[in-house]
Amino acid sequence: MKHVRNTSRLVALVVVVLVGAGACAFDPQSGGSGGGGAAPAGAAEQATGAGDTPGPDQHGRPTPAAPTPKPSRKPTPKPTRPATTKTPGAGTPTVAGCPQGQHQRAVETHLARLGGFGAVTVDGRQSAADCAAIKKFQKRYGIRPVEGRAGPTTLDVAQRLATTDTTRCKAGTGTTFCVDLTRQTVWALRGGKVIMAPTVTRTGMSGYRTPAGTYAVNYRNPKEWSNPYEVWLPYWQHFTQGMGFHETTTYLHDKSIGSHGCVNLLHADAVRMWELGKVGTRVVLIGRRPGT
Predict the structure, then answer these.
(1) Taking Cα atoms as reference points, which of 112, 111, 205 lies closest to residue 154?
(2) What are the tens digits of pLDDT across the range 157-169?
(3) Is 238 a residue of the active site?
(4) Dist CA 87 CA 48 (whole Å)
(5) What percent of the chain clears pLDDT 90, i.e. is strictly above it?
(6) Beta strands of 55-205 (E only): which ranges?
(7) How confident is the model at residue 91 (pLDDT cuts 50, 70, 90)?
(8) What is the rounded CA–CA span in Å between residue 275 and residue 190?
């Protein structure tokens, strides 16, 4: 009798162990994250309705066949072309391949005044020619992204350049580097004539104002190391109090920051001014950067 009882207990124990192991087994579809356990029985079916109990009317009755639909005699409609607006809104792609910015007409006006970027029609509407001209302008002055959109940065740069008065700089007989601190532009003169057209710059930020005045380049180095700020200053041309011209190491059009008094330049402009300058080159700074 004891032998029969022990055998029954052993069979029951094996059944419990097997059932328990099956319920807690690792699910290879869970990805090993430990976040998912075994789903309750019937959960998947409940989610799809496949496990629902059939109603009383479903027992023993065959499902009637669905009637065969008759072919339609209506002609197949012709595809229609999407409607296009004559005056797209800001940021809407146009046939020119460029999105139209909110400052389209103003940018066209300034680019037409500046010249040198291709044909521009001042009408406030994007065209293939306008698109190409704006892209060329953005690429020249390091504006990102180069997409031909007349946005705020493109307008700001175009307006500053178009309104720079090169005659305000009192040039010497030789080469003179001129900086308009108010408009944040820089250009070069020789014998009173412009030899480098106005381009963009960024000078000292608040607390590090670049002072107006007349100076001269007194030291040059194609790659100067800044000890206090631990950064390389390519095409360095010093003119006063540790301040000088050099290629920028950050995005020039980020107005939330500025230099510690230096005149930051785009790469191409820094190279050009290095080629034009020498020790003794006259430096004239006028105006004052807003906010300093």
Answers:
(1) 111
(2) 999 999 999 999 9
(3) no
(4) 49
(5) 63
(6) 175-180, 185-190, 193-200
(7) low
(8) 13
How far is 239 from 273, CA to CA, in rounded Å? 13
Q: Copy the structure tokens of residue 196.
A: 């480098």
- Inter-residue contact 199 to 180 (CB < 8 Å): no
Please report the pLDDT score of residue 32 as a whole number: 34
Report the distance separating Cα 112 and Cα 33, nearest Å. 62
The residue from 246, 253, 260, 267 that is catalytic is 246
Q: pLDDT (tens digit, 9 = 90+) per residue, 237-250?
A: 999 999 999 999 89
Mean pLDDT of the chain: 78
In the annotation, is 246 catalytic? yes
Tokens of 19: 């059932």
Contact 142, 125 (CB under 8 A): no
Four-residue CA torsion sign, 33, 39, 45, 46: negative
> Where residue 55 falls among pLDDT bands split at 50, 70, 90?
very low
| Beta-strand pair 282-286/213-216 | antiparallel
Q: Radius of gyration of the chain from Cα atoms? A: 37
- 8 Å CB contact between 92 and 99: yes
pLDDT attached to residue 94: 65
> What token pair was written down for 169?
């700089």
Q: Please give the class, per CATH, of domain 166-286.
A: mainly beta
Task: In whole angstroms, give the CA distance from residue 228 to residue 150.
Answer: 39
